[in-house]
## 1
Amino acid sequence: MGIAELEAKMAKMENTIKDLSSRLTVTQDIQEIEKLQRIYGYLLDFQYHKDVVDLFSDDTESVEVAGRGIYLGKKGAERFFLTSQGAPREPWQMAHHMQLQGVVNVNLDGKTAFGRWHVLFMCVGGWGEPPKPTAAWGFGLYENTYVKENGKWLFKKLYFNRIFYTPFDQGWVKVPDMSRVRPPETADLPSTTHHPYPAGYVIPFHFNNPITGKAPKR
């Protein structure tokens, strides 16, 4: 084997190693983002709201959940999770969210990423006036942005569109949204989109069709 052929094989091996290393990094990043999202769900359900805030970047863009307004920056995330979402619960209140069918894509810069998740939840909330304990279930989607800082993935932007939130014995056709109207006393801006069933609203996809390379469309 001549020197030129040997050098060509060495260069090919180096490129293969670089490619495999890059693929490994992306795979590890996706795993860490999925872990971040799942841990967020557990902390949220069991009211570890201060720990939830720690999952957000100091450079957070915004938090927007259903029709509860837009909270800007890390300070906005603190107000939402510690004041609005973190308001004291009645002993009978309960919430359990299952985050499903996640699709995570890391950008080429390796520092930012997007994730989309279905959320099916079961809870006991207050419904009626005065509010009384009501078993309910709901469904919605997250379309989130993440950022990698100092080797750790954090939330950059959290957006959740709730499609229905209904008493379990009535269903979303009769009662698509049983949430009580809350004054946006702590939000920075009104919600951009909140379209419960039967609006048919679809959050724009952050990803393209993997076969055609084009944005999904109906």
## 2
Amino acid sequence: MSGSLIGLVDRMTSVSRIALLLLGLLVLNACSSNRLEMLGASVSGYNHTPAAINWFSVNGAGGPNMGPFQGGLNSQVCCTVIPAVWSPGLRAVVKWEKDPFPRETIQRDQYGQIDLEAYRLHAAKYSTHEAVVEIPQYTDNMCAVQVHFLACDQVKISTTCYTSEHPNYPDHAYFQKKESTTCSAI
């Protein structure tokens, strides 16, 4: 088969070869010009719930665990990847594991080691979640992807450079919400 391909190339005129070469270059150029410029952004989390977040990820980039009502800059890790230029409809996939009973006592043996069967029973209560979350508009000086875990397994993302203590922090309302006792099916 390769012999017939070589014969075909030998029979091609120089004009055909040039046309084929130009077509290949155009295809390569089109592919490279559509490539998005991406930037690395650190990831931090805020847990606004009484559950523990054992782990979370944003577009596959891991975040740390957080106890109930914990998080902030001390939960910052590196990095997820997002487009350098924001566009409407930009979203991220957030995945996480939740421990609804983080203060539950787990039996230990005489040496203080966690009993494996007791831990297995506790861990069976963990739940995993996934949400596609809108990324709010950001500019060239986007500092971090901040994930807010809210009541009823809701998740919001912020991209501000301000810390939660700053008066211009856009998400102060998340810190005012109380855990709901009932969650409606969405």
## 3
Amino acid sequence: MSGFKNVLRLSLLILSSPSWSQPSPSPKPYRIAALYPKLSALNPLIGQEAICITTGAIEAAQKEGLPIELEVIDNQRNALETVRAAQTVVDKKFDGVVGTLDSSEALAASPIFRKAGIPFIATMASNPGVTQDNPLAFRIQFDDNRQAKLLAKLTANELGAKKVLIVRNASLPYSDFLGTEYQKQLRLLRPEIAMREIVIIEGFSDFEKLRDQIVAEKADVNFLPLLQAQLAPIYNQLKALPGSFTLLGGDTVGGSPTFMNMLGEVSPRIKFYFVRGWDSRPVGPLADLYVRLQKAHCPHIAQSVVNGSSFDAVQAFIAAVRAKVKKSDAAPLAEIIRRNRLRGVTGPLDFSESGSPTKPLYIYQIKPQTPSFWKLYQ
């Protein structure tokens, strides 16, 4: 009997020891939603540029052992579907959101996420309203206050304009704000510059009439803060005419192969300058990881501002999760993101004040076959 008691006592001792205790449950994963279009009529690959690198970054973080998950929610690249997608994020109680590829979508989603208390990092949206009065919202690219100010400076100083024509789309928040703010900044900088404005709306298609108006104005610089689908027909109408023109576009152009195909043959009589938010050369400590993931997960896609900005957006969340797991940081994700000051591949991401990093403008000029870097402006 004493032998049985000893065996029982030993069994109880083993079961009560730390090495034989029940394993602790795995930490609850942080769930990130990515709002990107799975298909886009304007540019079939643009959503995939963002999705492939975001998926690759999350998979790499999971291999590292971080408790993080990703779900891609198709916003079909329009504001109405983005509202639906944002509500899905809220209903499913995600911990954070990356994405949207333009300002209209981000403006629709940002207040929904703020009300639900979900941090949101806009990948490409530049309208200031996305982060304004929303401490949970951040952006990877510069905002349009900065873009308008620097483009006005470029127009006055580098392009030497004495007369400027602005064509803006009043239906599109990006175009409407950037065109209006550019005009305001140019007037403050050089009140003697003559300025005229042509306002169009979404669905506008009379590009022949618009061409005639542009020709009649005889402006030194024609500022066109429009999307590619409206920029290309304007360019093609003008290149059919004699005479020279100087066009200045915002950061929606990008110089992508899709846009270059839309332009067709490039005219040597048209100087077409546009903005990029990045020169596609990764910098910082995450550069090697970005290049490796881009080759592995996006072999059919070139390095681009969409690709790089999407990588930086999801890395901001990954870094915040890592801080919580490794350092037992009790702060909310949004607070960690704001103070982390991550060095992304597109440049430093200092969200400490407005939620928008201060970045330079990369000015390119469209040349035959490929856009060429012209000037860094900051």
## 4
Amino acid sequence: MELLGLIVAIVGLIVALVIGLWHIRGIRHVELDVRQQYANLEVIRASVSTHFLKEFPHCLEDIVNLINKAQREVVILCDFPAYGSFSNPADFLKYRQAIERKIQDGISITITCFREARQKTVCAEQFAAVDENLESLKGNKAALDKLQRFLKFYAPSQTVDKLTKTEFLNLLTTQDDRMLRESFSGAIVHPVDAHLSLYFWVIDGAQAVFSIPVISDRASEYGFYTSDGRLIMAFEDMLSRLHRGSGA
């Protein structure tokens, strides 16, 4: 009887093990199906001619990826030459390097951005509510982290506790000036003194990343990708009108 009980127990264990393995196999199939469905949705999303990417400054990564694919030309319209240098210094470095590589490869680069005087005016307006000692920024953890990253990249000898608003704005201006003198040295530059309600980066007249500045509590800009030919033509027409109006 003891032997029979042992045999029954072993058989029961084997059956339970087989059932368990069968369930695991089924779960894996379901997991693979879910992953495939998600991959299919991503393919569909990417195939749509115009779709949302990310909020600024995270969309800077998408701009870099786009510029890296340029074969003939890159046309840029944005507010500051050093776009994203404060908000996302790590991806801004990749942005700057991507532009420099394309110029070295003989790719045509054209940038339309604020004139120097307007750069300083708009920059001051953006931080108008900040006190001279930057206490309102230093007292906010997210803003403090951003300041520390910014100094790490562009002024490692400077400390946040001693940084003033005047010094901070000068550092921002320095990055814009450096970007024009160095990274865009072989590019066609059109400085303008006008309000910009849209920024874009177009490659080869066929693909673009564009950003809509909103300055709300939720975000400062929303980034989108498009390969819609009519929309890209609208960007080009808007840029031509801007150049005519500003004498750029």
